[in-house]
């Protein structure tokens, strides 16, 4: 997908070094220094315009959050949206999420989020899917035993593929939803769901949203 350039993006990023990291490998093992309080670290790979992670940071001040996004203009939009809230538990990273184990030390992260990742539907592109086994291996390194991975998508094929990939890798599925919004409504507030921009768009068209939560095994 082509992303329109935002001429103000560079200036906004330069003016807010307290909220955005351009050299994430420098903070490997030291991410807590970027936050006001030392708290469990949650990371979203492919954060888009930031609606999900901003919502999570507001709803859960007891956790620290890092959002990783490769597209500068997209991440600048997330940064712009988050600045008025002055959230001390939220940081943005301009980088390719494929380098997650270069950015975080083993067991430095408690939970990972993958929201509406590119499905890469062609078989020859399987290795690019963020739930392919090589990616799961890198997640296992930064999460450690018992770490959790939350995955949401509108793509049924990718969801089914991810279930098979994760279970083959040895992950335990602790939550599985084939219609997340229906399940949230039926739970009467017991099931939390912070929506992403894509999620709202697809749900408005009546398309079901799929979600799973998987846990890496405790050895």
UniProtKB/TrEMBL annotation:
Q: What class of enzyme is it?
A: transferase
Chain sites annotated for binding S-adenosyl-L-methionine:
44, 69, 96, 118
> Which SUPFAM superfamilies does this entry report, sorted A to Z?
S-adenosyl-L-methionine-dependent methyltransferases (SSF53335)
Instruction: Locate the residues binding substrate.
Output: 122, 154, 196-199
Q: What is its EC number?
A: 2.1.1.33
What pathway annotation does it carry? tRNA modification; N(7)-methylguanine-tRNA biosynthesis
Q: Which CDD domains match?
A: AdoMet_MTases (cd02440)
Pfam families per record:
Methyltransf_4
Annotated region described as Interaction with RNA, given as residue ranges: 124-129
Which reaction is this enzyme known to catalyze? guanosine(46) in tRNA + S-adenosyl-L-methionine = N(7)-methylguanosine(46) in tRNA + S-adenosyl-L-homocysteine
Keywords in alphabetical order, please: Methyltransferase, S-adenosyl-L-methionine, Transferase, tRNA processing
HAMAP family linked to this entry: tRNA_methyltr_TrmB
Function summary: Catalyzes the formation of N(7)-methylguanine at position 46 (m7G46) in tRNA.
By sequence similarity, the record places it as follows: Belongs to the class I-like SAM-binding methyltransferase superfamily. TrmB family.
* UniProt name for this protein: tRNA (guanine-N(7)-)-methyltransferase
Whose protein is this, by species? Answer: Furfurilactobacillus curtus
Recite the lineage of the species. Bacteria, Bacillati, Bacillota, Bacilli, Lactobacillales
């Amino acid at each position: 997908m082509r992303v329109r350039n935002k001429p103000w993006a560079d200036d906004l990023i330069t003016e807010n070094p307290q909220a955005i990291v351009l050299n994430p490998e420098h903070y490997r093992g030291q991410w807590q220094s970027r936050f006001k309080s030392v708290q469990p670290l949650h990371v979203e790979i492919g954060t888009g315009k930031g609606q999900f992670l901003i919502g999570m940071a507001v709803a859960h001040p007891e956790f620290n959050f890092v959002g990783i996004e490769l597209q500068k203009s997209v991440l600048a939009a997330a940064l712009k949206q988050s600045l008025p809230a002055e959230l001390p538990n939220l940081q943005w990273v301009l980088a390719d999420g494929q380098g997650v184990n270069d950015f975080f030390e083993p067991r430095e992260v408690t939970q990972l989020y993958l929201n509406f990742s590119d499905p890469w539907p062609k078989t020859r592109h399987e290795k690019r899917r963020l739930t392919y086994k090589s990616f799961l291996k890198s997640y296992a390194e930064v999460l450690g035993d018992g770490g959790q991975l939350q995955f949401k998508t509108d793509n049924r094929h990718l969801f089914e593929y991810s279930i098979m990939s994760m279970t083959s890798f040895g992950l335990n599925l602790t939550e599985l939803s084939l219609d997340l919004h229906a399940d949230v409504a039926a739970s009467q507030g017991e099931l939390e769901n912070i929506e992403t921009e894509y999620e709202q768009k697809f749900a408005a068209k009546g398309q079901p949203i799929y979600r799973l939560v998987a846990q890496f095994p405790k050895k």
